[in-house]
Specification:
Blueprint lengths: L5 H8 L3 E7 L3 E7 L4 E5 L4 E2 L2 H8 L6 H11 L4 E6 L3 H11 L1
Parallel strand pairs: 1-5
Antiparallel strand pairs: 1-2, 2-3, 3-4
Helix pairs in contact: 1-3
This protein binds zinc ion.
The site of zinc ion has 8 residues, from helix 2 and helix 3.
Length: 100
Amino acid sequence: MKKTPDRIQSIISEKRVKLHIFEPSMRKIWTVVGKGKEHWLDLESEYCSCQGYYFGRLSGKNLCYHLESAILAKNDNQAEKIIFSDDEYVDFIMTLISDL
Ligand SMILES: [Zn+2]
């Protein structure tokens, strides 16, 4: 059995993988709370807003540990789900972007 790295395990167990669901459209936004920052992830295109992801891609590595954590949390249904209304979607995105 493949062992999950401690760093990823603690991110999941500390509920730092968050799935924001906007209703009624059911749009989903994934974030992982890192050190003082919240990173924005797109699981479908395997994108993360962190620097590790950016430099990892440049050097040929694929996933940063945020993405690995989020994918694992998704598969195990362990993400922290937060429900929003669609009215809040634009504000949410703006806040996320201004935080990057
Ligand atoms: Zn990342």
